[in-house]
Amino acid sequence: LSNVDSAKLSILAQNLRDKGIEWFKKQNIKYIDDPLKAAYQLFLTKLGISSAEAPIVQKQRKKLVIHSNNFCPTLEACNILGLDTREICKQLNEEPTEALLQQLNPSLRFKRNYNSLRPFKPYCEEMILLEDS
Question: Which of 35, 69, 92, 129 could form a disulfide with 109 if both were Cys (CB 3.0 to 4.6 A apart)?
């Protein structure tokens, strides 16, 4: 992320998206009737974390709210380089994560609350949404 600009972030995000989809295709994913539950399990599996590191703090019929407090290489790099996670995470990670979840169901969306993001808060508030198709 050193000397990164919007164009470089866009290229990095596309690489992350492609790698995530490639990773998904190699997995033996067990489909669950509940798309939000399946998306949450995929989210945890891809990041290699436990539910304790990214607990669901709110569950609605079409929305999960997660408070992630796991180790995050993007957060570490931003801290070291003096970059703002609110800018970097939105440009670098949001779309690739959503693209991965959409491998399960095209109606899934991934969002972050950029007012509740580390290092400004003790967790990153992330949401998995199921939109009407």
Answer: 129
Q: Which residues pair with 1 in a beta bridge?
A: none
What Cα–Cα distance (Å) separates residue 73 from each residue in 37, 65, 98?
A: 25, 21, 18
61-74: burial string, b at 16+ Cβ within 10 Å, e else: eeebbbbbbeebeb
d(CA 10, CA 49): 26
Contacts of 94 (CB under 8 A, 6+ apart): 110, 111, 112
Specify the 3-state DSSP secondary structure of 130.
strand
Q: Which helix (H) or strand (E) holds 109?
A: strand 108-112
Using one digit for the tens of pLDDT, what is the confidence trace for 60-106?
999 999 999 999 999 999 999 999 999 999 999 999 999 999 999 99
Predicted model pTM: 0.88
- Which letter does DSSP use for residue 53 in this model? T
